[in-house]
Amino acid sequence: MILIHYGELFTKGQNRPYFQNLLLRNLKAAVPKSRVYLEAHRFLMELPESADETAALDAVVKVFGVANYAQAIETDGTDIADLVPAALTLLKGKNGPFKVEVSRSYKNHGLTSIQIAQQLAAALEEKGMKMGVKNATATLNVEILQHKALVFGQKHAGQGGLPVGCTGKVITLLSGGIDSPVASFLLAKRGVKSVYLHFHPFKDPQEAVRRSKKIQDLIRQLQPYTQSTSLYLAPYNFFVLDALHVPERYALPLFRRFMMRVAQAIAEKEGAEAIGTGENLAQVSSQTLSNLNSIGSATDLQVLRPLLTYDKKEIIQLAEKIGTYAISNQDYIDCCQSLVAKHPATTTKIRELEKLEERLSPTLLQQTLDASVLLPVKPSG
Ligand code: ATP
Ligand code: MG
Fold it and tell me: Which of 4-18, 242-256, 287-301, 353-367 has the lowest mean pLDDT?
């Protein structure tokens, strides 16, 4: 079985069961054939005989809220004789010297943690294992519960963070670029469930569904972390036609404000409470404080920009780690590209943009929403 410790959830006091239930649900979803249950502040995941253990471990390491995990054996009792066979199984094929560490969440065991560690080490030594505290190359861990013990080897670090879903729903603006998938990953780390919104350059919604494979692949690649499966595909052609009525250099900032309005309308429908983007401060010339102000003021909702302070290099490293970088680098027609080519305004005033927006059609938002489609993106396999 896999022993899973959660991290920050420990600080949640009375709300802890809420966070625990979400993490339990997310762990089950990550390894569908497993049985997961909570036992004295840790999770135990039992895998069926036929399960692919490596795949299960690979899934667990991607679930936010997991502080660390280890392959473990559960014993039938808590006497030293009960612990020895499990310890021998775990240490088989490994070279010592080994050190034993014991913790008791059930304190009425009769022996102290140190006594259990000493007696178990002595029993293992008798069985021919090399034991030693100072020069140990590996640790054997034992957690004593009331009627059983968990024996496990090395603990591996999990993702940390909080279980997805615990902080609510956010409309995440996903482009085909490098940044927004990483932003989505970081939002998920703080428990956000993303509903994605992507603007595409196609006139026919069905063509958008067919040709947005790259966007769908990004969502699938993120799923082990984000558990998000909803993608809204919104056309940008209505905006482009309207933008002919405004000076070219304002088309991009106006489009960004327009994206916020579409996102807000979808947020109302979805019960989402904020908008997420991959925007950064000063990464490109249009990402100025005044432009970020202008964009944010187009919506009443909070705009969450988890990459705001990241260097491009840091973003790329993270994109490589989570496997989105290669997908982001594939060719794709990004609809902002044509607007960027026109040297967008780097400083904008909200009033000025509002004035220009009077030239846009009053039905633009509704037309765009009417031509948008919701596409469920199923996990692969
Ligand atoms: P990214 O790599 O995420 O595209 P970027 O550095 O290229 O980011 P911009 O192209 O300026 O930055 O876009 C800023 C943010 O606006 C993106 O991170 C994304 O959240 C949103 N965005 C841009 N284009 C689209 C699009 N076609 N559909 C949905 N959101 C978009
Ligand atoms: Mg981009």
Answer: 4-18
Give me ligand 2 centre to Cα 290, in Å: 19
Percent of the chain with pLDDT over 70: 96
Whether the model clears a pTM of 0.85, i.e. scores above it, the answer is: yes
Q: Is 381 a residue whose pLDDT tops 70? A: no
pLDDT at position 342 over 90: no
Confidence grade of residue 108 (pLDDT, cut at 50, 70, 90): confident
Q: At what angle do helices 179-189 and 213-226 cross, to 10 degrees?
A: 20
**pLDDT for position 283:** 77
Q: What pLDDT, on the 0 to 100 scale, is given for residue 39?
A: 85
- Which mutation among 211, 336, 337, 343 tests ligand 1's pocket best, with the greatest number of atoms within 8 A of CB? 336
From the CA of 334, give the closest atom in ligand 1.
27
Which residues approach ligand 1 with their CB closer than 6 A?
173-175, 177-180, 197-199, 259, 277-279, 283-284, 334-336
- Beta bridge partner(s), residue 37: 44
Task: Give the Cα separation of 170 and 363 in Å (integer).
Answer: 25
Integer CA distances (angstroms), 198 to 11, 191, 201, 318, 334, in order: 36, 21, 10, 21, 10
Residue with CA closest to ligand 1 atom 13: 279
- Name which of 115, 177, 176 is nearest 142 in CA terms: 115
Structure tokens belonging to residue 320: 């490589």
Tokens of 164: 């997805």
Query: From atom 31 of ligand 1, which residue's Cα is the shortest distance away?
Result: 175
Mutate which of 170, 173, 327 for ligand 1? The one with the most ligand atoms within 8 Å of its CB, which is 173
For each of the domains in the chain, give its residue range(s) and CATH number, in order of start. 2-157 (3.30.2130.30), 168-376 (3.40.50.620)
